[in-house]
Design goal:
Blueprint lengths: L1 H13 L14 H10 L1 E3 L6 E3 L29 E4 L7 E4 L23 H63 L28 H4 L4 H8 L6 E4 L7 E4 L18 H4 L8 H25 L12 E6 L2 E6 L3 E4 L2 E10 L4 E5 L11 E8 L4 E9 L2 E8 L6 H4 L19
Parallel strand pairs: 12-14
Antiparallel strand pairs: 1-2, 3-4, 5-6, 7-8, 8-9, 9-10, 10-11, 11-12, 13-14
Helix pairs in contact: 3-7
Amino acid sequence: MLLVSLRLLSVFHVTVCTHVPHGAHPEQVERYAEALQHGLFQCRDGSEALAASVLNDDFCDCADGSDEPGTGACAGVPGAMLFCQNLGSVPRWVYSSRVGDGICDCCDGSDEAGCPDTCAVEGPALIAQVRAREEDIREGRRIRRQQMEEGGKQAAIWRAEKQGLDDELAKLMLERSGLDNKKAPSTDPQVRTPANTPKSTAREAPAISEYAKWSLQPDEQNQAADQPGELQCWVGEFVGAQAWCCDPSQGPRGRGECWDQVFTFEACCPNAKVATSEDVARLIRQVKGRIFTLERKLKAVSRDPRWFALAETCVKKDVMGKEFSICFFGDARQGSVSLGSFEAWDEAGHQQLYTGGQRCPSGPSRSLKLRLVCGAETQLLDISEVSLCSYEAAASAPGACGSEDLQDSSTPLTPLTPLTPLTPPQ
């Protein structure tokens, strides 16, 4: 467990050889001690053998920066870092470019001459933070298991809904084709004009299409349905099919079938209209939009149902006065500016890629790479523009929680500013 390793590290640091150059990692004790003993230092990459006196002389002699573990002389050299022992707290690496810059990066003050040792204060606070993080991970794993159970059930519901919409779309396409080609009122006994619909067929009216209802002034119909004793009308299975006038107590909304036709369509619902080809086209667009949404959700949970909750979720965060929002498996935005739409999913790495956003002036289209990390709450943690029109973000979600997270619960929630590893550069 991490708390145990913190204590072990603190004890180990006390035993470190005092002759090791400032800023060196404990695992490099033998290397530097041997160099000081023999008066000869070999650069880590083996390129040069130098006098031991070059160690921490504030001049970068080795191309890999290994001769200056405790100064900023090799700033900018890949792998050139100072190791903060931070006794009583958590040890860490600091880039050489941050050594001597006037900012206290190490709680023991080893990166700056004038920084006090605050590890005794920072340590307990950091341990409390780690404990809270571990509890958050445990809760995230519990929620993940729950979401996996719910996700499997929800996916089945979405598939059934999509199948029904596919059938509805086929009917609407046929209806629009019929309306486009229709030159005169139909003589088909199954599709009569409202005024001529025979009374005997009233009890045989088919199930009402929810999408068909949308075409005939839903606000007025709903208002009529809420008034006892009033008559109301709706359409049949197809948008242009039978229109009925019914007693609301026997009408739609699951309260039975229309028991009789009263007068004519015009007399019963004078403000209603017969659906046109344009009405059907509008319904087709609505149905297609819903099908697209369902397909996107099903794609999100196709491999693992633990992600189903994200398909219904959007997160927002204000960063330096700018509002960023991401709808998982949907689109990402900065205010009104598109940062891209969902393009690819690296489930193993818990990363999503959003591309095709609004083009930057004289630049590429905006894009965003989103990394999901373990957390009990789904929220946007951090986002920044790492290069021209290219963004990186981090969000927490229970679906990202795994057993490995408890082994690394000190890892910050945002991947944009990670703690440096405790192992020395190779």
